[in-house]
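Pipeline run #58 for the internal structure catalog. This entry was flagged by the ingest filter as a single-chain record with no existing model, so it goes straight to prediction. Upstream metadata was stripped on purpose; only the residue string is passed forward. Reviewer on rotation: M.T. Logging verbosity set to normal.
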Amino acid sequence: MDRLLVLVRHGQSDWNLKNLFTGWKDIDLSPKGIDEARSAGEKLKAGGYQFDVAYTSALIRAQNTLKLMLEELGQTGLEEYRDQALNERDYGDLSGLNKDDARKKWGEEQVHIWRRSYATNPPGGESLRDTGARVWPYYLTRILPDVMRGRRVVVSAHGNSLRALVMVLDGLSTDDILKLEIATGVPLVYKLNEDTTVAEKQILED
């Protein structure tokens, strides 16, 4: 039994390119992001990976990343579930703002805290802890049961929804998670033990 779980952060979006806070704004991939999504599919194909089921968020950049990866794998039409539980962290009042402009307005340190702290919310938005509060139950009730049944699962989601998930999978502390950056379009391959803990992790980098 494989007990395979692959996590992929969507490729660069148009707002990533413009250095804007995106959050729940439904922004599509940039040309570079399209290339990153296809590259993720190529890496998975080179590794011999195939999937039984896919999960993604309610946002187009994650959905299109999944679509492009599956095209590269020759698996279009795969069983797919979309849920806002896997959406990016909601940046609230910061959404749509240029990150450099936000630093000028609130200061480098404050913006860094909003972006990287575990429990501090940006104005009107979610902390990483809040994001985890919707990601973790969805993982436990929907994704993990599929993995434990031996279904090979791929998840296309977002930097912070995946940080919340990796925090649990890798057993990271609230301090450790501050340093974790998940690259766009780079598959994280997990194989789980019978007790749901991680047996093996591989990052499919260039």
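catalog note: The chain has a mean pLDDT of 96.
catalog note: The chain has seven helices and six strands.
status: ready for reviewer M.T.
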